[in-house]
Design a protein that fits this description.
Rossmann fold; OB fold (Dihydrolipoamide Acetyltransferase, E2P); about 20% strand; alpha/beta; binds iron/sulfur cluster; pyruvate-formate lyase- activating enzyme; binds FE3-S4 cluster; binds S-adenosyl-L-homocysteine
Length: about 425
């Protein structure tokens, strides 16, 4: 047998890219590749890229600059660009970075095995199609190799919402849902490989319509799988939270008490300019309904500050929304102008104004995050242990609220759900003792 070829894949952006990267590794496994953890060791490097903000896209070109140095020494090294920058820029990437051998978009990576053969012959393939065929049906089964007890599973891709700031509808295309039977089958394959918690993924996961009863219908079906103990989903749009899904938070034991529900702004004027199609009051009302079903729900969100036209009062409305809702954590972003999106045409805010707002919002969010963590001290939570910790004898995992928890415990508890009493709250994690 010949030596396996070595693949290094670097993932940027959202969890959907994490999932896609796993599947790309599995796909290239068929061509004799095994994954390695540095580009220096690799025969092929794939960058699975993100286009959401300017910085994200620029990182790719600086990484390609570093890879060029390796390729100068080892001209055999093959370099591929996948993901959302690949989709957005296609052929242009090769013009700007001639070291690149292949470009593949998020909808066509099932064709990677053929593309890999083409680059071995010196070709430079570019594939950013939105093909007719379903890529998932052309991908290998999920690998049964040893994996951690948690996994992502993409159920829906693309977005039809066209928020005024966002590139995703252009890079990922229109909303498409995978058929429910195939998702159930993939979930079973993951459970057979030792997975106990699955996070269902989609750019707008709660717009899932591959089940007659929507995402809630799919969750109930997955909840039937023996050995699957925890279900989560992300990312949701407030307008797609239907009654069945809200109810599931109160009735489905396997659905974890955690929800990421981006709102972006607390100002009605800005929400409208962003084309989010709901008001702040509608968001408050929705949160009230979900919390009525699940009072201990840990809620997180995404915010953009410095959107074109955002006044001090608009920003104050965002701060007010955050104070009223009380989030367990949140991501805060400074608005980044994306060419081709409607908001890019509007007069932009001065950078220092946006920075000041970003710091103020981050400070408030951090305070709320600490408060949510501190409130866990003294409580008992269920922790799914995932791996060994940094200190000897320590194991780490996630609580049902998705807090990182570490405890002293036997290695045999890795992969198991244990009751843990929280004894201490640190900046980024909780310390507990097994009960
Ligand atoms: N589909 C999800 C989010 C996808 S992008 C949703 O609807 O919420 C993840 C986050 O990146 C968004 O929630 C938004 O807060 C942020 N984001 C998207 N485009 C951005 C831009 N142009 N500038 C700054 N942040 C942006
Ligand atoms: Fe982007 Fe809006 Fe779609 Fe989310 S809902 S992916 S922010 S366009
Ligand atoms: Fe980035 Fe594409 Fe995800 S732009 S956030 S990797 S969908």
């Amino acid at each position: 047998m010949s030596e396996p070829k070595k693949l290094f894949i670097k993932t940027y952006g959202c969890q959907m890219n994490v999932y896609d990267s796993e599947r790309m590794v599995e796909a290239l496994g068929g061509n004799g590749y095994v994954e390695v953890d540095s580009p220096e060791q690799a025969d092929m490097v794939l960058l699975n890229t993100c286009h959401i903000r300017e910085k994200a896209a620029e990182k790719v070109y600086s990484e390609l600059g570093r890879l060029k140095l390796i390729k100068d020494e080892r001209p055999d090294l093959k370099i591929g660009v996948a993901g959302c920058v690949a989709q957005a820029e296609g052929q242009e990437i090769m013009a700007r970075a001639p070291v690149v051998d292949l470009v593949v978009g998020p909808q066509s990576y099932h064709r990677l095995p053929e593309m890999e053969k083409a680059i071995q012959k010196g070709e430079k393939p570019v594939d950013t199609d939105f093909p007719e065929e379903d890529k998932f049906e052309h991908l290998n089964k999920r690998a049964r190799t040893l994996r951690g007890p948690t996994a992502f599973l993409t159920v829906q891709e693309g977005c039809d919402k066209f928020c005024a700031f966002c590139v995703v509808p252009y890079t990922r295309g229109a909303e498409v849902s995978r058929p429910k039977d195939r998702i159930v089958r993939e979930a079973q394959e993951l459970v057979d490989a030792g997975v106990r918690e699955i996070t269902l993924l989609g750019q707008n996961v709660n717009a899932y319509h591959g089940h007659e009863k929507g995402l809630a219908g799919l969750i109930w079906e997955l909840a039937e799988i023996d050995g699957l103990d925890r279900i989560r989903f992300t990312t949701s749009h407030p307008n797609d939270m239907d009654d069945a899904l809200v109810d599931a938070f109160g009735t489905c034991e396997k659905l974890m008490p955690y929800l990421h529900l981006p709102v972006q702004s607390g100002s009605d004027k800005i929400l409208k300019a962003m084309n989010r199609k709901h008001t702040r009051d509608q968001y408050f009302h929705l949160i009230d309904r979900i919390r009525a079903k699940r009072p201990d729900l840990l809620l997180t969100s995404d915010f953009i500050v410095g959107f074109p036209g955002e006044t001090d009062q608009d920003f104050e409305d965002t701060m007010d929304l955050v104070r009223r809702v009380e989030f367990g954590a949140s991501f805060t972003f400074k608005y980044s102008t994306r060419p081709g999106t409607p908001a890019a045409e509007k007069p932009q805010l001065p950078d220092d104004v946006a920075n000041e707002r970003l710091y103020a919002l981050q400070a408030l969010i951090t305070k709320q995050q600490r408060a949510a963590q501190d409130s866990m001290v003294g409580r008992e939570v269920e922790v799914l242990f995932e791996k060994k910790g940094r200190l000897p004898g320590q194991i780490v995992g996630k609580s049902n609220y998705l807090h990182a928890v570490h405890a002293v415990g036997p290695e045999s508890d890795i992969g198991q759900i244990r009751r843990v009493k929280i004894v201490e709250s640190g900046p980024n994690s909780l310390a507990g003792v097994l009960v």
